[in-house]
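Pilot study result, target chain (420 residues):
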Amino acid sequence: MSFQQGLSGLNATSKNLQVIGNNIANANTFGAKAARAEFADVYALALNGAGSNGIGIGVNLASVSQQFTQGNIRTTENPMDLAINGAGFFQLTDGRSPVSYSRNGQFKVDRDGFIVNNAGLRLMGYAADALGTIQPGAAVQLQLPTAGVAPQATTEIDLEMNLDARQGVTRPGGAPFIDFSDPDTYNSATSQALYDVLGNPVSLTYFFQKTADGAWDVYATANGTTVAGIPSDPQPITSITFPADGSAPTAPTAPIAFDVPSTTTTAGAVTQPLTGVLLDVTQSTQFATAFTVTDLSQDGYSAGQLTAIAVEGNGIVMARYSNGQSRPAGQVELANFRNPQGLQPIGDNSWARTYASGDPVGGVPGDGNIGVLQSGALEEPNIDLTAELVNMITAQRIYQANAQTIKTQDQVLQTLVNIR
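Predicted structure:
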């Protein structure tokens, strides 16, 4: 009787339609992976296992296999959206249940600063200490810092410039040898902001005075107060001597130290003194071209509050602060499996490890065979909607054909019953 074959075909095709329907339903689910129904034929064996003329008794569903191919990367406007380009899974936990794994990178920050997905599961990775140093080891729940950045006093200054060799000597014949309010007593000037231990800005202005061919004195004021000497008799903080070709100075050949006294800002705040600040002018030149400052940097900064988060390709979560500073707040760890198809889907775009999948192998994005992260992007499902619609039409025809075999067998039996 062919009822068995037809019935098994109906059941198998019905399950195939369920798989296709689920694929179509998730055609817009980020991180979803297409599934494929895989079938096996069924035969009844003789007692001794012999015989080659047996007719199959139908079909059964051998497996529903997920296809872990790469989906397209779609850019978004949300910096907390993460896409994995390559192998690997995000590790998620609620702190109680076993770790789950996902390719969906739609993350947010909850009220406690944890990076979570739509199901409230927390993203796992390596933590960073207060100075931004990543602490490799066992993956933990990533939590963004809530405190701001403490200020740092200026200790080093790099000044790279060209002093115009065409300019004449401006040093007055007698004391005081410079008048900061009289541009005729110096050749050029430039300014920058330093910071004291409290993060108060100190406006430092440099005055460059040519004293002879190839010789320059450098004066400085902090918030209008001379740094060296007294107001009635300012003194240079250093003197620069150039060789005849105007290249790197012959003196000084190393950074020089100077002190910045306590001053009062325009807002009335009293700044703390800065002692032993190192000024490096060894990259300066004296050529016959206009005065130009090509680099003026210092290592101090004011206090800052967290303003933005960015995730780099290697998984490092960079915290950006209002004072312009950035430092790592953690690093995302991805997990990979020897047999991803052995993972068990548990819903919410997540999978759980099984014996068939093997143990997870953790690593940072970009290492070994683990993919890289792309911030502000999401991985689209790898579901080909056109192919699924064609498969649905094919499955429908197969379902109808199996129903037809049952109908035909019924007609045959009816004919036998009607024999007289």
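One observation from the pilot: The mean pLDDT is 92. A full batch analysis is planned for the follow-on phase.
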